[in-house]
Amino acid sequence: MRIDIISIFPEYFAPLGVSLIGKARERGILDVHLHQLRDWAHDVHRTVDDTPYGGGPGMVMKPEPWGEAIDAVLAADQDARPRIIVPTPSGVPFTQRLAMEYAAEPWLLFTPARYEGIDSRVMAEYGSRLRVDEVSIGDYVLAGGEAAVLVMVEAVGRLLPGVLGNARSAVDDSFAPGEMENLLEGPVYTKPPEWRGHEVPEILLSGHHGKIARWRRDEALRRTARNRAELLAALDPATLDKHDRRL
Ligand code: ADE
Known about the structure:
Shape: elongated
CATH topology of the largest domain: Alpha/beta knot
Bound molecules: adenine
Largest sheet: 5 strands, parallel
Number of domains: 2
Oligomer: single chain
Distance between the termini: 43 Å
CATH architecture of the largest domain: 3-Layer(aba) Sandwich
Strand content: 15-25%
Order of helices and strands: EHEEEHEHEHEHHEEHHH
Radius of gyration: 22 Å
Number of helices: 9
Helix content: 25-40%
CATH class of the largest domain: Alpha Beta
Structural class: alpha/beta
Strand order of the largest sheet: 2-1-6-5-7
C-alpha cells in the first residue's frame, strides 16, 4: 500500500518509522511519502492560512497550496487514484470497519489540517473526481489532524497482510466484524499464575477450549455492558445465544 501525507509538520510523522509500522515500511509492505504543504505556498512567508469569510475566530487553510500539493501527489501515478482522507472533528467516525475498508485500498492520501480546517472548495474539487472522506477519530478536538493521521495509519497498517505476526489477532480485536462485532475484548493474563495475591482465573489454566471460549465471551459481554452500554444495546439479537441472553 502507498500512503501520502501532506502537512505543514511532516516531522510529526517520525513515529511511523518505529515498531510495527516502521517494520512494515522496511519490508516494503507500506510505502509512506511525506510532503511539506508550504512547498506549494509561493509568497515569501510561505503562507497557508487566511481569515475566514463571514468572520469568526481562527484561520482557514487556503485552497491554492492544497490544490497544488494534491495535484502533485496525484501526478505521481497516472494510472491509479488515491482515496483522500481529510481528518476533521466534523467527519464521519473512524471505526474498525472503515480501517478494514482502507486496508483494502492500494493508495491513501491524508490531508491533515491545522487551524479551523481547509477551505471547503478543496474537498468539493477532488470529491467530484475521487473518493474524499472527511473522518473524525473521536468526539474531541485536537490541535491539528496530524495525530489523527497517526492513529488511522496505525489502525490500517496493522491490518495489511504480513504486518501482524499472528493474523488471528486482528480477527479477535474489539470491534472486528464477525464474532467480536460491537463487543469489547475481555481481560487477558500471562504467567505467573499468581502475582501479589491475584490469581489468574482458573478456567484459563484448565486447557478446556470450549469452556475458555465461553468464559471469554461472557467477559466480553460484561465489559461491554459496563464500559459501553450503547454498544450492547446495538448488538444484533440474532448473534446472541441462550447463554448470552441469561447474562
Ligand atoms: N482534527 C482535530 N480534531 C480531530 C478529530 N477528533 N478527528 C480527526 N481530525 C481532527
